[in-house]
Amino acid sequence: MTRFHVTYRLVAADRAEARARAEGIAYEQTVEVPPDVVPPGRIAQEIVGRIETLEPAGEGVFRTTISYSPDSAGRDVVQFLNVVFGNSSIQTGIRVEAVDPGPEMTRRLTGARFGVEGIRRLCGRPRGGLIAPVLKPQGLDAASLAAIARRCALGGADIVKEDHGLGDLPSAPFRARVEAVTAALAAVQAETGRRPLYFAVLPGQRTEEAIAFAKAAGVDGLLVMPGLHGWGLMARIAGDDTLEMPVMAHPAFTGAFVQSPAAGIAHGVLYGTLQRLAGADISVFPNVGGRFGFSEEDCRAIARSCLDPTGPGRPILPSPGGGMSVDRAAGMRAMFGEDVCYLIGGSLLRHGERIGEEIARMRRALDEEIA
């Protein structure tokens, strides 16, 4: 059975300490008992993590790759993540730099149902970047949000995405909001013969009821925050043959994992590889030049991990947001290429009734780059 591999960056004074730290991870992430307590035989030989490599990576820094048995993870993405970086995430000086699930874990885990090709097919956009305006701000009522959705649809948006902060608030309760937006988009389709995909953000409670309601109401996809809703929910939606709904993953509550180069999880792993394994079709992340401080290399690493044809499962769409504007479209295409989903929020809302015109202008800019 092919083992899966995780590469960790370790802070250690010398090779002996690095070796001890690597051994500690191998036990901590699997049996979680001291070596002398591990039963002999299969558990000691197969279940305990194996140190495959240990090399220096700079002064006071080492890099180790540890392999794990797929039977430590089963068929559950939550348990898989628990093995990758469960208890060790609580320790200092350990950072996950790469995850290679191997063929067996890739087969066992859900993965993206639609991926890049599937989302393009649903949008009717075979080439070029996808435009995804965001319904916001928090505090607007359902009718006002639906009016914004209508303007975005008439402007030629590919996806209309709810802001992750809309939840199930008194100003625009989930059900009322979903009904208003789906009605507005249905009207646009009746008028023009086309409408964008609509991704609704799930509330934190009575989630299964909300999923069923969204499906019945005509919502196309679901926005999930794995850092809050849980990675298992995303995998559950992606794996449900009766739903057939794409998933957009939002990074809320995960930022602390990527802020330090000495701890946490590498950007490309968290927002690329792990999203692919857990079932996201679109992975949202803060764009360079915005208010969140991700560097150009951070963003490129995420996009590479999302789109790598040799990665696990289907390639998925990277979706930069935060600080995006129509005027940055050409530069962003040069950076990310064609397979990208652009989130546009606050900068678009400045145009009020002319939101649709701005979306159309962005479409022209992106299409000119293709030509």
From TrEMBL:
UniProt xrefs under SUPFAM superfamilies: RuBisCo, C-terminal domain, RuBisCO, large subunit, small (N-terminal) domain
MF GO annotations: magnesium ion binding; ribulose-bisphosphate carboxylase activity
InterPro entries with a match to the protein in the record: RuBisCO, RuBisCO_lsu_C, RuBisCO_lsu_C_sf, RuBisCO_lsu_N_sf
GO biological process terms on file: carbon fixation
CDD domains on file: RLP_RrRLP
Pfam family, one: RuBisCO_large
Nucleotide-binding listed as a keyword: no
Keyword check for Kinase: no
EC number of this enzyme: 4.1.1.39
Residues in coiled coil: none
Domain Ribulose bisphosphate carboxylase large subunit C-terminal span(s) in chain numbering: 123-281
Signal sequence annotation: none
Enzyme class: lyase
Name listed for the protein in its UniProt record: Ribulose 1,5-bisphosphate carboxylase large subunit
